[in-house]
Amino acid sequence: HKTVLSALSCPACSRQIPIFPSIPVVAASMSRPPPPFTPQNPTPAPRPGGQSPSSTLPASFSNLQISRAPPPFASVGPPQGDGPVPSSIRGPQAPPPGARPFPGSPSPPGSLFACPAPSVQQSPPFGAPPAAQSLQQQRPPFNGPPPVLPAQVQRAPFGGPPAASQPLPYGGPPAAVSQLAPFGVSPVAAAQSAPLGAPRYSAAQPPQFSGLSGAVSRPSYSGGSIPPFGAARAPSQQGPYGGPPQFGGERPGLQTPLFGAQTAPASQPPPFMGVRGANAPAFGPPGWQGQTRPAASSEFIVKDTGNCSPRLMRCTMNQIPCTGDLLTTSGMPLAIMVQPFALPHPSEEAIQLVDFGEMGPIRCSRCKAYINPFMRFVDQGKIFICNLCGFSNDTPREYLCNLGPDGRRRDADDRPELCRGTVEFIATKEFLVREPMPAVYFFLVDVSMNAIQTGATAAACSAISQSLSDLPEGPRTMVGIATFDSTIHFYSLKRAQQQPLMLIVPDIQDVYTPLQMDLILPVSECRDSLEQLLESIPSMFENNRVADSAFGAAMKAGFLAMKPTGGKLLVFQSVLPSVGTGSLSARETEGRSNISSGDKEAHKLLQPVDKTLKTMALEFAEYQVCVDVFLTTQSYTDVASISVVPSTTGGRVYYYFPFSALSDPAKLFNDLRWNITRPQGLEAVMRVRCSQGLQVQDYSGNFCKRVPTDIDLPAIDSDKTIMVSFKHDDKFQENSECGFQCALLYTTVYGQRRIRVINISLPCTSMLSNLFRCADLEAQFTYVVKQAANGIPSSSLSQVRDQVTSTCINILQSYRQYCASVSSSGQLILPEALKLLPLYTLALTKSIGLRNDGRLDDRSYWVSIVSSVSVSLAVPLVFPRMIALHDLTSRDDEDPLIPNPLTLNSENIQDNGIYLLENGEDGFIHVRNAVNPATLEQIFGFSSLAGAPNLLVLEQFDNVLSRKVNEVVNEIRRQRCSYLRLRLCQKGDPSGDFFRSLLVEDKAPGGLSYVEFLVHVHRQIQSKMT
Ligand SMILES: [Zn+2]
């Protein structure tokens, strides 16, 4: 039943892999049916037996602190089923689909209403830390944003809260009010002496377009000083998670802190306040009706007075059309973008945690909506009327309270659930089908020949090792690791053992896990041995000649190990999966020939090749396993097929192509670290409810859907957005309100079950002009981008581009036809709120996803990130930001870190300039021919571009320009919560052409110039109207 391998030799060359003598290699014990185990090594070398393994260690390993080999069989447990339940794996198996109750199902029985008034606690921002006071002492709050990386000393082991004396990063107040004018003057407008800072057009005086010169709308950067998340980042006492991550330098540990210079605090912008959601609508502040939300990309602070922060939930229109016909006429989409864990501004009040005890949160007994500020109490508070379904509920006896003269409950201001748009409730037993799961992290590292030789394995091991201290603190955090090539190698990390034990799973068609003994352990018990193992893995496999990669089988094996708990499966993959379950083929070659022969089915290469991985992913999701895939590759890996797994399980693909061992390890590490430390929830279920009159049409994002009403999210984090679209099933009365409520049931990384409830209530209107006036450009455009991405795998690119353009034209035509007062045929009339829609639409048709040229994998990757992208990142992804780097020294230290973005046309490019263009994923640095070599030397450390690598390592040198460039790059990374990859783009090189192709206002082989596009849109509108 048990076979012991004493050594493993390379199947290709029969050479013995050197490290194995030092690590006992034990065949995994088998679960049902015993796998046809054949020793990997046809001629097993003699076992070291009792002799010290250090004597057999190769030279490169002599630094390993291995004092004694464990007895050959000492650590091998009994066959599965006979042994004791491993202490490291607790809890019952996850329930079958459908068995999990959703916030919607159970209704607290009346007998449970026996507890005192709910206690309310101020939960730290991001809702992660423990709630109940009794727990507060035991558990540290969320670790706070990752500190500056290079300063290793600042990083407390286990990521505890930073010491009080240390200035916390990102706690600073936001930029000054003066920097926040919502509309500045665009460069073009400035030339025409438009009134500074004033909106150029209003609905009453629509902008006019006649001919080629004139009012061309561009994003306005008033004073250029509206960086999202604020320019000032002075230290403050802000709690943990006051902001997005700080990223380390290009080479972790080698550089001085990059965030040394902090802008002084400035006065705060006026907070954005939504309607007061008093349980008496009449008492909202007057004049609110139809207030628009601040732009997602702008700096703002939210004061929650009943409607949620627009960061968490944002509708494509801030007034809801009374009828479906009106919505259709407008041409606009009706959807909300939900980003339930969106990072707040550091100055915003934390989301409050409400504990109703055993009674559980108050809910409408008909539609199960949670109590919220828009529910109205009547009849001396004895009845409350649901704002979603209109049902009159009896107020539970324990929750009774008199109404004041204003008709509101007297306690409304003291109860967060009655005065805040977003609250969290502690989940009662009804929301639990098992103990809340622990935070489990299982790492899978590709050690096939290619991964080893490109340095990808070493980079992955280093990133994991450095991230261990960022894992959530506490006894419930568990880790495990396996490596794989054409077989899968598990490691038992039991502390008592002096060295890790390797267990090999050779069957990659019908995968099983070794004994579940010790494969996943509390991090506190195995950290040292894990670190040691991670250090050893690159050299253990340094002579590996196995080129095959059993990616699918390895994921399956990792999943089986995690099945009892669920958790996060983090996969580091470097080549096209070639063997075992879920193996893939190089469809790209096939695709090239198809595309060149004009095959109309070329888009099929952007669909998953078959259902194998999808089926696996559905099973993973059922058992609460979320998969993130880090693709560190130099070749085609079929991202379209691979990305199905993360997108079904609430994860994402990280893509490093072409992987560079020089520049990418820093990004890999920072990405992994943010992945672990960002605010997130586990084993989540989400449902969105809305007022009668509307119904949810569809959900879109990275999740698994089993029933029409709910989506399952094995994990959800602060970067993920879910789009929910709606359709009318009835009419609304004019002046009524339409409510939306998102309920997210989840488990914190510290094991507390909570329900985050996010509310918004919007006025209904029968006036088309109101819809246009209150349209949310960025949310609407995000909808268009996501719809386009959904269409790419199923339609030809030209069809998708046409679809995108006609969406824009239909909206503008509706406005022109029904709302514009001026009707001269020579004018293009744009609604003020949507005046940038044509520009963004043009940019979308030229984006990496929709342009004709480009690699299949690049397009698939684009599709995969759009699937979960937030509103604030969707726009730059398509419409990048360009800034000049060469003259940064002319700026004062008091200026905002990031200078005014330049419009995206080549007229802005000077021959002696250096430009950075960033889209939230990549930073492209374009160096012009006539650049002063001294400037080049200051920024890059070399005076000539000849031989410079395309993937750039930006170092900080001892000069002002270099410091400022580094500050800008790091500020962008912070804003985007993404460690941008930097690429050098040179003229006369494909990279230079690529840079030019991102200047979306220019005429390009792939598309019209901006002015040409406006003319095109105008003509289309005219022809539709006649
Ligand atoms: Zn209801």
UniProtKB/TrEMBL annotation:
Region feature (Disordered): 29-171, 198-268
GO CC terms in record: COPII vesicle coat; endoplasmic reticulum exit site
Sec23/Sec24 beta-sandwich domain location: 681-765
Biased composition regions of type Pro residues, renumbered to the chain: 32-47, 93-109
Protein name as it appears in the record: Protein transport protein Sec24-like CEF
Family (UniProt): Belongs to the SEC23/SEC24 family. SEC24 subfamily.
CDD domains: Sec24-like
Organism listed in the record: Aegilops tauschii subsp. strangulata (Goatgrass)
Residue stretches making up the Zinc finger Sec23/Sec24-type domain: 361-399
Lineage summary: Eukaryota, Viridiplantae, Streptophyta, Embryophyta, Tracheophyta
Domain Sec23/Sec24 trunk: from-to ranges: 436-676
Annotated PANTHER family: SEC24-RELATED PROTEIN (PTHR13803), SECRETORY 24CD, ISOFORM C (PTHR13803:SF4)
Annotated keywords: Protein transport, Transport
Record SUPFAM superfamilies: beta-sandwich domain of Sec23/24, C-terminal, gelsolin-like domain of Sec23/24, Helical domain of Sec23/24, vWA-like, Zn-finger domain of Sec23/24
Compositionally biased residues, Polar residues: 51-66
Span of domain Sec23/Sec24 helical: 776-874
MF annotations from Gene Ontology: SNARE binding; zinc ion binding
Highest taxon of the lineage: Eukaryota
